Amino acid sequence: MDELSKSTQTAISGMKVQSQRLRVISENLANADSLAQTPEGLPYRRKVMTFKNELDRATGTNVVKVDKVRADSAEFQRRYDPKHPAADRDGYVLAPNVNPLIEMMDMREAQRSYEANMNVINASRSLLSRTIEMLR
Amino acid sequence: MYDDLGIFKMAKAQMDWIAQRQEVLASNIANANTPRYLPKDIKPLDFKEVLAGTAQPDVGATTTNAKHIVPEVTPSPFKAVTQRRTFESTPDGNAVILEEQIAKVGDANSKYNAAAALFQKYQKMIKTASGSR
Predict the structure, then answer these.
(1) 3-state SS class at A96
(2) In what residue span(s) does the Flagellar basal body rod protein N-terminal domain sit (chain A) (predicted)?
(3) What pLDDT does residue A17 have?
(4) Are residues A64 and B113, on separate chains, in Cβ contact within 8 Å?
(5) Measured between CB atoms, does A119 come within 8 Å of chain B?
(6) What is the pairing mode between strands A92-95 and A61-71?
(7) What is the pLDDT of residues A36-70, one digit of tens each?
(8) Which domain holds residue B125?
(9) Domain extent at residue A109
(10) Which whole number is the average pLDDT over B88-115?
(11) Domain total for chain A?
(12) Among A132, A28, A53, A60, which residue's Cα sits nearest to residue B75?
């Protein structure tokens, strides 16, 4: 495999992980109000993901993979809502530890990274086509 | 045949170098969110080395027995170095700056075009000299 295809492979792996990240972000955002049903129950816990760099042995390229998707251990928020079925004795309900602002920022970052990877693919492709042009 | 001509050799070395660099830059950009990832870059091409044709791989396997198999994948003659001094890094230790990397990609692109144009130009000159059109 030539270097230009390898760089395309790497960029594609980067795009893949960023889209997976976007999926986790959308899960978090969608569940920002998923509360428990019973007083002892726990609401939705935010998910975070980490990436790792890995050598793909089949092609000999360095690719990015999702390392882990784990639960964010940050504390839950508390909302005062005595009428809710999950409210405790004092009338507080545990709410998910999702901060929409943080999720939005993460989303923007994923979007930018995705675009940067796309640029790399475009650049590699133009180099490849330039090489092929030389045959003419 | 072209390999014997200095100009072609140099243009080829330059294009090889850029292709390798493109790979390194791609992995930098792909790892823009990997914790503790430091960006890499390839050592600039040394003009003297290219001219002398001595840009050799750093590592190579030595065969001491006829039965030893020479690895098919030859190590790249270009050295990827990790950038120790970076402009800034995120709290998770990642020091990739997308703008910087994209600028490098653009730079590589134009250099590649220049080398390819040079290659073609000389090819045309040879064609002219040999009388074919």
Answers:
(1) coil
(2) 9-33
(3) 93
(4) no
(5) yes
(6) unpaired
(7) 888 888 899 999 998 888 888 887 788 888 988 99
(8) 2-130
(9) 3-135
(10) 88
(11) 1
(12) A60
Place of tokens 């270009």: B78
CA distances from B14 to A99, B19, B27, B41 (A): 49, 9, 20, 15
Find, among A56, A8, A70, A65, the residue nearest to B33 by Cα: A65
Could you give the number of structural domains in chain B?
1
- List the single residue in B31, B112, B123 with the smallest CB-CB distance to A130: B112
- Residue of chain A nearest B104, judged by CA positions: A120
Encoding tokens for residue B76? 């790249």
pTM of the complete model: 0.78
| ipTM higher than threshold 0.90 | no
Q: Report the amino acid identity of residue B32.
A: A
Tokens 């675009």 identify what position? A115
CB-CB under 8 Å, A10 with B102: no
Residue of B nearest to A112 (CA): B98
| CA angle at B118 for the pair B115 and B120, rounded to the nearest 5° | 110
For residue B51, the distance in angstroms to the closest alpha carbon of chain A comes to 22
Tokens of A11: 């960029």
Q: Which member of B23, B102, B119 has the closest CB to residue A6?
A: B23
